[in-house]
Specification:
This protein is 36% helix and 19% strand. By secondary structure, the protein is α/β, with parallel strands linked by helices. An eight-stranded parallel beta sheet has the order 1-8-7-6-5-4-3-2. Strand 6, helix 6 and strand 7 form a beta-alpha-beta unit. Helix 3 runs parallel beside helix 4. The chain is globular and about 45 Å long. It binds D-xylitol-5-phosphate and zinc ion. D-xylitol-5-phosphate binds at residues 6, 8-9, 31, 33, 66, 68, 139, 141-142, 144-146, 179-182, 199-203. D-xylitol-5-phosphate (DX5) is lined by residues 6, 8-9, 31, 33, 66, 68, 139, 141-142, 144-146, 179-182, 199-203.
Length: 223
């Protein structure tokens, strides 16, 4: 199970240190929640901030950008230029999805498609053959520390089957990433559902334990 730490609930006043601690604890990537205050009711950070993080962390850390923004199909290149390796866009926020995904990949990044909790997986099926990942939102996007929406189970299981069918017919392997409300009490269940990659924000960055301690809890739950 890949764990992608979301820095949204990290100590932003000491972010470089928090991120380095996460990498020293054995994580290999950052999940960067970009929010524009329009597509979601919160505003976080943009390309300059990401470039600064890239300078602090060096080239080896995978930057997984989750673009919760209204105009991703016209602005994703700025995030690649700022150092992002993977770009996930929301199906609800893109007009020309096939073109957007192929353009992200032609720019050298991998491409993910994010689905809000109420968006059916059918919205991903026409581009499933070309996607690198599907991000199933298990919270309503905009904030860290929210409760897991357990009704996404059926959606995950159907998506798992669709991808397995695609692969058994010689098609592309597509990663299932779940995003929101993942903790040590539910992460094993998510693996049982067929999830490959879990975004974890407040389950890692919180004031009950260090990142190392919280990561150890998650890994223990996966044993
Ligand atoms: C929510 C973000 C998530 C969130 C995860 O809009 O996309 O990545 O930061 O945080 P937790 O794990 O605390 O739900
Ligand atoms: Zn996210």
């Amino acid at each position: 199970m890949i764990i992608a730490p979301s820095i949204l609930t990290a100590d932003l006043g000491n972010l470089g240190e928090s991120c380095k601690n996460a990498m020293n604890a054995g994580l290999d990537r950052l999940h960067l929640d970009v929010m524009d205050g329009s597509f979601v009711p919160n505003l976080t950070f943009g390309p300059p901030f990401i470039s600064m993080l890239r300078d602090v962390l060096g080239e080896d850390v995978l930057f997984d950008a989750h673009l919760m923004i209204s105009n991703a199909e016209n602005t994703f290149q700025q995030y690649i230029d700022a150092g992002c390796n993977h770009i996930s866009v929301h199906v609800e926020a893109v007009n020309h999805l096939h073109r957007c995904i192929t353009a992200i990949q032609e720019s050298g990044a991998t491409a993910g498609l994010a689905l809000n909790p109420s968006t059916p997986i059918e919205n991903a099926l026409e581009v499933l053959p070309i996607l690198d990942s599907v991000v199933v939102m298990s919270v309503n996007p905009g904030f860290g520390g929210q409760s897991f929406i357990s009704s996404v189970e059926n959606k995950i299981r159907r998506l798992r089957k669709a991808i397995d069918d695609q692969v058994s017919n010689g098609g592309k392997v597509v990663e299932i990433q779940i995003d929101g409300g993942v903790k040590s009490h539910n992460i094993q269940t998510l693996r049982d559902w067929g999830v490959d990659n879990c975004v974890v924000g407040s389950g890692l960055f919180n004031n009950t334990g260090t990142v190392e301690q919280n990561l150890a809890e998650l890994r223990k739950a996966l044993k």
